[in-house]
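for the record, two folds in this file. i put them one after another cuz i was lazy. first one right below, seq on top, C-alpha cells after. the second one comes after a little note so u can tell where it starts
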Amino acid sequence: MTQSGESKPFTVPTIEEIFALLSAFDPAENGVKVVDQAKRSIESIVASLQLILQSMENFNRVANRVDKLLDEIEDPIQKLADASTLLADLANNLAPLMAFLPKKES
C-alpha cells in the first residue's frame, strides 16, 4: 500500500501505452496550428504598426498646424507685450504728475 507522499515505482511502459501516447501526438496538426497562430500574430503586428504610423502622421500634421499658428500670432503678441510694457512705464512716469491735478470732490 502506498501512502500519498510516496511515488509509485517505475515500470517500463508497454508497447500499447507507447502507441497510445504517440497517437495522441499529431505533429502535422500541431504544425498547422503553430503556423496559423504565427500568421495571425504577424498580421496583428502589421496592423498595429500601421495604426502607429497613422497616429504619427496625424501628430505630425497637428504639430505643423500648431507651428504655423504660432508663427502667425507670435509677432503680434510680442508687439502687444512691448506696447503694454511701454504703457506701464508711461503710467509709472505720470504717477507723480497726477498729484498736481485737482481732486474731484464727491
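(here's the note) second protein begins now
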Amino acid sequence: MIVASLENFMNHENVDSRRMDLHRRIALVLRKEPGLVRDFAERLRSKLATARSAAVVSTILTLWSPLQVIRSLEDSSEQAVRLRQNSPFVSLLPVPLAYRLIE
C-alpha cells in the first residue's frame, strides 16, 4: 500500500501538478509586487551565473516583463514547465506552505 502511494506521489504528472499549484500561488504574490521579478533576476545572476539553466531563467526574468513572467508561471507550455523546474520563486512563499506544496 505504501509503495503504491509513493509511486502515485512520484508520478511525473502529479509532480507537475503540484509544481503548477505552487507557481500559481507564487504568481499571486508577484501580481501584488511585480518588482520582485527583477530582484530575483539579480539574485539568481549573482548566485548561479555559471549554471546554464540558471542563466536561462535569469535571462527570462531580465528580458520579460513582470506580467509575462507571472503568466508563464501559470501557463502549461513546455517553456513554462522548464521555468517552473528551475524556479527561483519558491522562497516567496511562507516556508510551511512551500514545504507542503513541494512534498
